[in-house]
Amino acid sequence: MPPITVTLVGCAALGSSFTSKLASGSVLGKDQDIVIKVFGEPSKKLSGPLVKGFSVVDSVEDAVEGANFVVAVQGTPELGAEAKTFAALGKALARTHDLVNNTNVFTVGPNANTMALVLSRSAPDMHSSRFYAVSMGEQMMAASELASAAKATTADVDRVIIWGGTGAAAFADISHARVKGKWAGSTLKSKTWVEDVASKVEKVAPTLLKSKADVMADATATTLSSFVQGTGASQWLSLGVYSDHGAYGIETGIFFSQPTVNSGWAPERVYGIPVTAYSASMMEKAQDILLKERDAVKAYV
Fold first, then answer.
1. Which residues form the Lactate/malate dehydrogenase C-terminal domain (predicted)?
2. In CATH, what class is 4-134?
3. What is the DSSP string of 138-193?
4. Are domains 4-134 and 135-297 of this chain identical in fold?
């Protein structure tokens, strides 16, 4: 197999564990060669039998040229400044014409969905389905809270959903979650178990990248790994995708986190999930935040 080229932008915020996972093969596959490009920040050189190239580049065009994956991490919570930075990255993507059909872009951070929107609008020749916002960090936090309440491990928990976005726009929905294959509600005594977990994640999510970089590194690695190697039909992975169908009452034209499954290189949204009145209200709240973010960066979208 030819090497997969991964471009990292701002990924120092994830710490060294993410790049180590890339180099080890735990993300893209144990037999998958990889070329790593780091844009505009000092980085310790990575080595290993799978690493066929490593470079730190100062030109954003050189950084994204030939990339199969671009992972772009939001450097600060300053929405306007970050939108300007991501717009420049999007324009570089647009100028590198061979990327149109070959590159997948993942954004990470407290406004990852809006940054994905800025990128996609700045690279209009690239289809919106090539851009994704990583919301797996919030999903992992919700799964951890549920596992603790159920006296189980996170490996026992599945079908947790993050609706909306990342950070303040994340709604952690565990109403369909399972613990050891059984509906979580059948094992929990609390009548407010759904609301309890949602509230805890809501408080932590806005500072997740800064306070728990290791969680975000794992979340990003898991998202890329699932993208390449698949999730399995029963495993839901929350992912910010471009809303163009109006499913679940989501307004079109924004990136909105929802459950997906993946058989490899092709995420598919999970449709037909029943939505409770509480979940619907929280999804609307998340959507309102994303729409306000979009309006705040209207110069770039």
1. 146-299
2. alpha beta
3. HHHHHHHHHHHHTT--GGGEE--EEEE-SGGGEEEE-TT-EETTEEGGGT---TTH
4. no
Closest CA to 197 of 184, 213, 186, 210: 184
Annotated domain spans of the chain: 4-134, 135-297
* Contact predicate 110/77, CB 8 Å: yes
**pTM of the predicted model over 0.85:** yes
pLDDT band, very low/low/confident/very high, at 155 (cuts 50, 70, 90) = very high
Provide the mean pLDDT of the chain.
93
Interval 242-260 mean pLDDT: 95
Burial of 265 by CB count in 10 Å (0-12 exposed, 13-18 middle, 19+ buried)? exposed
Mean pLDDT, residues 265-279 = 95
